[in-house]
UniProtKB/TrEMBL annotation:
Residues 6-61 form the ZZ-type domain. One of its GO terms (biological process) is chromatin remodeling. This is ZZ-type domain-containing protein. One of its GO terms (molecular function) is chromatin binding. SUPFAM superfamilies: Homeodomain-like, RING/U-box. Residues 65-117 form the SANT domain. It is found in: Nucleus. GO terms for cellular component: nucleus; SAGA-type complex. The keyword NAD does not apply. Keywords: Metal-binding, Zinc, Zinc-finger. The keyword GTP-binding does not apply. It comes from Graphocephala atropunctata. Residues 67-113 form the Myb-like domain. It holds the Pfam family ZZ_ADA2.
Amino acid sequence: MANEMFNTYHCTHCQYKIDGLRVRCTVCSKFEMCLQCFSNGAEIGSHRNDHPYQFVDSVALDVFKDRSGWSALEEINLLNAIEHYSYGNWKDIAQHIGTRNADEAKEEYVNRFLEGSIGQVTWPAVSHCRPVLQDLVEPDDGPLAPNIVATLPPLDIRTQEANQLDYYPLRDDFEIEYDNMAETLVSSLTLVHGEDDDLDIALKLTQVDMYTQHLRER
């Protein structure tokens, strides 16, 4: 039954493609209509509009045998959104799904694909593939020197704790970085040769010092 969601269906009467809900005659063999033809009482061949029928919606099939209530289409949209927007952007992911909110999307992905049966099978197999990062930057004693702004080692915490903190151990990153707007201090900072006087230069260097202090706190 799950393969039905990948099939293409056309109305037997008007021959137009049917997207979503369709009407299947339980008397005639392989006879399905779109809602428009069904509501108009269409008849063709041996089919009569008083035949018993049933509504069929292939995209509403449940992939997993539990009571999560997520349809096959919702699961596919969830995985596509995770790949497109990346893990953690739950508002965008929920908007892509269209029928779920951010909390529901996060709960389904974590419980199903991280901590559920799928996650237990797939994640251990890739845990050894975590890349080893090497610092290849030459020694530097400037305000942004690696020895000054170097990050701490990744936190050694459980998956449940990481989810509560919105922390991603494999990326060693948080969904929302501490002091996330610190870069605004220097993002538009420029030195204009011949126009900046000593006071302008001093003020801009002060901004760089402030930014360096923010990086140390971060």
